[in-house]
Amino acid sequence: MALSCTFNRYLLLMAQEHLEFRLPEIKSLLSLFGGQFASSQETYGKSPFWILSIPSEDIARNLMKRTVCAKSIFELWGHGQSPEELYSSLKNYPVEKMVPFLHSDSTYKIKIHTFNKTLTQEEKIKRIDALEFLPFEGKVNLKKPQHVFSVLEDYGLDPNCIPENPHNIYFGRWIADGQRELIESYSVKKRHFIGNTSMDAGLSFIMANHGKVKENDIVFDPFVGTGGLLIACAHFGAYVYGTDIDYNTVHGLGKATRKNQKWRGPDENIRANLRQYGLEKHYLDVLVSDASKPSWRKGTYFDAIITDPPYGIRESTRRTGSQKEIPKGIEKWEKCPESHIPVSLSYRLSDMFLDLLNFAAETLVLGGRLVYWLPVYTPEYTEEMVPWHPCLELISNCEQKLSSHTSRRLITMEKVKKFENRDQYSHLLSDHFLPYQGHNSFREKYFSGVTKRIAKEEKSTQE
To answer: What's the CATH number where 380 sits?
Structure first.
């Protein structure tokens, strides 16, 4: 507890989207940069204002160089539930911490930020004038100030019931902004090579942050598709590699996904996407390969595995095999005779995720992370349905709703134990195994829900 007293308090201004993903992202990034998550609030809920204790300003700046869930961070000088409480809090803030930013040779400006309410210019000036008791000795510079200070007022979350007075008021020194602009600059709409299921840019960066991807890491995506996740990881300095069972996607062949374009061009491929963003030097390779039969020798190769497996909705779940498929077990790893011609078979979701976890447990370095999407039928979902492995520890489980009856959960796991052969089948002894097999009927339940919704809409239209 004594160490926590040396921490400085910071105010994070969070974006109001992907709410469930925000806390795991901030925790992962603080862990990545040597900080420990310490908060003066037990839960944030949907609030955009978070108060954190962070060991140093350097860690706070590093955090903002990565996060896409946070807009800005401020060194918190004071806060209260009323102007009087704020002013009292500011008067109690150590003067020696203020002086380096308020001396006569400095320039500054004060900004007013309100959440869920718009103030007039007159009201803003009134709030700025009320801070004249602070020991500002520098000159005001509205264009290029050395230091920016902000008053941030929180008027709650209900736009239909805006209170006259704010719930909370904060004052702090601006430190840095987050990486929200990456969502636009890496937008799939602008990307050279896309597919039906190309991952949204914002979510791609969130997944890379959950996976604690850093410079010089080796990151692998076994269901690479058009490589959207590789782009996000490469942006953070990782070397990227992927595989996919679809020959046409890997080689950029076949019908185009874009409207008014019949076929893909000769330079539409994953490597071209990385080249588009100046990231080609981070591209290792992409191969045609079956995720159910990895072609890797025993060993630990990857710092992170970041992936979005197919759910059987817009992309089919497939693996290679034969019409006389032997029961799933140790034999599947045996080599096929040279005369064998593999065919495409259905790949059950439960088998796919068990293979993925086993692969991650075998090939991740200790401390490496697996980040993947798990589709669920919401009415039947329980936490027991999340795949389990003795070598992997569950770090976070975040929901993104897809429809009234389906969602997908972003699962982040960390390798905490060296893989042994017996770990490959330990799931069979787990209490999670039977509920987990419920994922196999996700496709049927998904389309059943769609059919019911369409029928309901048609009925209401007829009435």
So the answer is: 3.40.50.150
